[in-house]
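As a point of orientation, let us examine one representative protein, giving the amino acid sequence and backbone structure tokens.
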Amino acid sequence: MIRLLICEDQALVRTGYVTIFGAQQDIEVIGEAADGYAAVEAAERLQPDVVVMDIRMPLLDGIEATRRLAGPGSLSPAKILIVTTFNVAEYVYEALRAGASGFLLKDAPPAELVNGVRTIARGEALLAPVVTRTLIGQYAERIHPARTPARSGHDPLEALTRREYEVLKLIASGLSNAEIARELVISPETVKTYVSRLLAKLDLRDRVQAVVLAYRTGLMDTSD
């Protein structure tokens, strides 16, 4: 059973989420919050498996609430799915930097929202189809220009084996574990092992952080 906390300031939308998620046999809505401060308090108190978080909320916005729950220094980072009406590059990138594990738009079909929660609960990352790697890459390039070993003095990817490096590049290209397995002609279980190893070596929490790092280090070409 996935224990879910819903953080949304619009009562009608919040009720819709409760109805959609509450109808699933494997999801239990354990709490609701209508502002950012309430979201942080509820998440710390209830310890949900997944938090559905809106970006624009009163008192404390969703990005700052996410940072407090899942950002650097969090002892037990929450798994947060950002769901918002705003498909803006800055919002997407800042939400991911704050520690969010995924990003969907509110106009996504109910089945996609439910699948998003399940995906995040499994420890995987999720980006809406409209949030392309180009969009993330271009914004990452603006905020943190791609660094090479010659310019930064250290390449964090040097710790990776050749196969781990290949897997990271495919993750950054938007491929799922199953797609990576087909691309490299290995089993999905082996892919999971490679993903776990490279995340541990790079001190990353999830695949979203891996995508951001791939762009920041210049592994991915944002001009593609």
